Automatic annotation (TrEMBL):
Its cofactor is FAD. One of its GO terms (cellular component) is cytosol. The keyword Oxidoreductase applies. InterPro entries: FAD-linked_oxidoreductase-like, Mehydrof_redctse-like, MTHF_reductase_bac. One of its GO terms (molecular function) is FAD binding. It is an enzyme of class 1 (oxidoreductase). Its EC number is 1.5.1.54. This is Methylenetetrahydrofolate reductase. GO terms for biological process: methionine biosynthetic process; tetrahydrofolate interconversion. Belongs to the methylenetetrahydrofolate reductase family.
């Protein structure tokens, strides 16, 4: 099923993001993770592409195919283009078609450390236009409530987002954010530009201090003072940090649901226990939202 059609059927759409393990030996653990996530009945599960931009040993198609075959849950396969040739992209798209996978998150991808890029696709927009022509996929794209880390300013970023949407994007997933005010401002701006495709809010439950540093360097998003204080106070207490991270994410989600968000995409990054804890805490709230749409 196309994810764009899931958005027509229900609100909020709930999804999880996972990544293929870096080591071949860890492949079994991802199957266990998927089994645990499947019990939570997500509308789809997204699978990131390669380890830090590498297309070698890529397990995205294999894992996506497993999710569809074994659990009948829609996979959303990420695909990045900055480091790929048209030939390589065609190869992956063909593999996706052969495996009955019809949803792709089309990304430019992080610039690899060695800056050894192929220049056949420079931006996500190029990839989206290319995939769209094939008429086989529902296409998702990333967007940035706080502006993309490389963008000169927010309005230029929005201008490029508009182009990306016009190139054939069916739905948007936001970069993670820790302050809902950025999301609400952004949603208003999209409305003013007549961008009306579904907008799913990306939420990441942060449960350790190292992750915070990683996220700031990778995404450049703002971490509220309140959250930094919690991390500092409980940095040596694993359980307390999990409690705090889950509570913080739930608080954000409840607020988003209250304002009628199209969906919540949880960047759980293979931490199925955390996903379970979040769903457990807000089960009744998620149900109310589904019923209202019936
Ligand atoms: N779930 C995931 O895996 C996610 C990954 N990302 C990462 O975010 C990064 C960016 O990916 P995308 O959003 O797909 O890239 P993009 O190509 O849409 O945008 C990248 C940058 O280029 C600018 N830009 C876009 N189109 C342009 C054009 N035609 N001419 C000039 N500048 C243009 C944008 O303003 C932005 O600063 C990647 O590092 C990606 O891997 C972001 C969100 C989610
Ligand atoms: N610029 C950018 N690149 C991305 O790949 C990306 C985003 N933004 N935003 C949305 C998601 C979030 N992503 C994330 C977020 C956190 C970790 C992380 O904490 N990684 C840890 C632990 C990994 C593990 O458990 O093995 C690390 O140390 O790499 C990884 C990917 C990937 N996505």
């Amino acid at each position: 099923m196309y994810i764009k059609d899931i958005f027509k059927e229900k609100k909020p759409v709930i999804s999880f993001e996972i990544f293929p393990p870096k080591k071949e030996s860890n492949i079994k653990t991802i199957y266990k993770t998927i089994d645990e996530l499947a019990q939570l009945n997500p509308d789809y599960i997204s699978v990131t592409y390669g380890a830090s931009g590498s297309i070698k040993n890529n397990k995205t198609v294999e894992i996506s195919s497993f999710i569809k075959r074994e659990y009948k849950i829609e996979p959303l396969s990420h695909l990045t283009c900055i480091n790929s040739s048209k030939k390589e992209i065609d190869e992956i798209l063909n593999q996706l078609i052969e495996n009955n996978i019809s949803n792709v998150l089309a990304l430019r991808g992080d610039i690899p450390n060695d800056k050894n890029i192929k220049k056949e696709f420079n931006y996500a927009e190029d990839l989206i236009r290319y995939i769209s022509k094939k008429k086989k996929f529902s296409i998702g794209a990333a967007c940035y409530p706080e502006g993309h880390i490389e963008a000169r300013n927010k309005s230029l970023d929005l201008y490029y987002l508009n182009k990306k949407v016009n190139a054939g994007t069916d739905f948007l997933i936001t970069q993670l954010f820790f302050d809902n005010k950025y999301f609400y401002d952004f949603r208003e701006k999209l409305k003013n530009r007549n961008i009306n495709i579904p907008l799913q809010a990306g939420i990441m439950p942060v449960v350790n201090k190292k992750q915070v540093e990683k996220i700031v360097s990778m995404c450049g998003v703002n971490i509220p003072e309140k959250f930094i204080k919690i991390m500092n106070k409980y940095e040596n207490n694993k359980e307390a940090l999990i409690d705090a991270g889950v509570t913080y994410a739930c608080d954000q989600i409840i607020d988003l649901l209250t304002t009628g968000v199209d969906g919540i995409h949880l960047y759980v990054m293979n931490k199925s226990k955390i996903a379970k804890e979040i769903v457990k805490r807000i089960t009744s709230i998620l149900k109310i939202n589904i019923k209202m749409e019936e």
